[in-house]
Amino acid sequence: MGALVWVPHAVEVWKKAQIIQKLSETQVEVRFVSDGVGYDPEDGKIKTYDVREIAKLAGEVSSNAMPICNTFDKLGVEDMCTLNHLHEPAVLKNLQLRHAQFVPYTYTGQICIAVNPYKWLDLYSKDLYFDYLNLPRNDLAPHPFALSSSAYIDMNKLG
Questions:
Q1: Which of 131, 7, 148 is closest to 67 using CA atoms?
Q2: Residue closest to 132 by CA, chosen among 144, 123, 145
Q3: Residue 59 Rama label (left phi>0; alpha psi -120 to 50; beta)
Q4: How far apart are CA 33 and CA 56, in angstroms?
Q5: pLDDT by residue (tens digit) across 72-94?
Q6: For the CA atoms of 7, 12, 18, 20, what is the dihedral angle to 10 degrees?
Q7: CA 20 to 30 Å from 139, out of 9, 50, 153, 159?
Q8: pTM of the prediction?
Q9: How far apart, in whole angstroms, are the C-alpha atoms of residue 44 and residue 9?
Q10: Res 139: pLDDT
Q11: Does the pLDDT at position 61 exceed 80?
């Protein structure tokens, strides 16, 4: 009891909650908690959920596993493969945090995910491209330049 988990929510898609008690093998009672993004009048409310439904929605392997909350800093993580608990709610939360800070690119292994910031960001200079061409990928923030420079370097090596 007391674990922080994600539960389905009509408005937020997934909402952070704390397990209060296990009512049966398939039912849990949770209390909505703040995820630090602002005021939510539902925080503190108690609701009962079917664990099997949550597991199915979150894509959990086990039918009785609930998606556990990761600990995030303000910018989330640059590569979602580093998340301790990787599931739909964690991916959405990480992208939400990065989008709120106008950080449009996030890796998932070798894949670069882009979320439109809906404003111009100075992320495409020639100098920046050369940084991605000359420095190791892990030394710089996620960016499509990293993928294109990696492809360019590999093409030159392989001919």
A1: 7
A2: 145
A3: left
A4: 22
A5: 999 999 999 999 999 999 999 99
A6: -60
A7: 159
A8: 0.89
A9: 14
A10: 92
A11: no
Q: How far apart are CA 145 and CA 130, in angstroms?
A: 9
pLDDT digits (tens, 9 = 90+) for 140-154: 999 999 988 888 888
How many Å apart are CA 99 and CA 118, to the nearest integer? 10
What does the chain come to in residues?
159
C-beta of residue 15 within 8 angstroms of C-beta of residue 89: no
Percentage above 70 pLDDT, the chain: 99
- Structural domain boundaries of the chain? 4-58, 80-158
C-alpha–C-alpha distance, residues 105 and 114, integer Å: 5
Region of residue 107 (left: phi > 0; alpha: psi -120 to 50; beta: else): beta
In the three-class reduction of DSSP (H, G, I as helix; E, B as strand; rest coil), residue 126 is classed as helix
Q: Running DSSP on this structure, what letter comes out for residue 79? A: B
Which one has a higher pLDDT value, 147 or 5? 5
Q: What's the mean per-residue pLDDT of the chain?
A: 92
For the record, the structure tokens of 107 come out as 């890796």
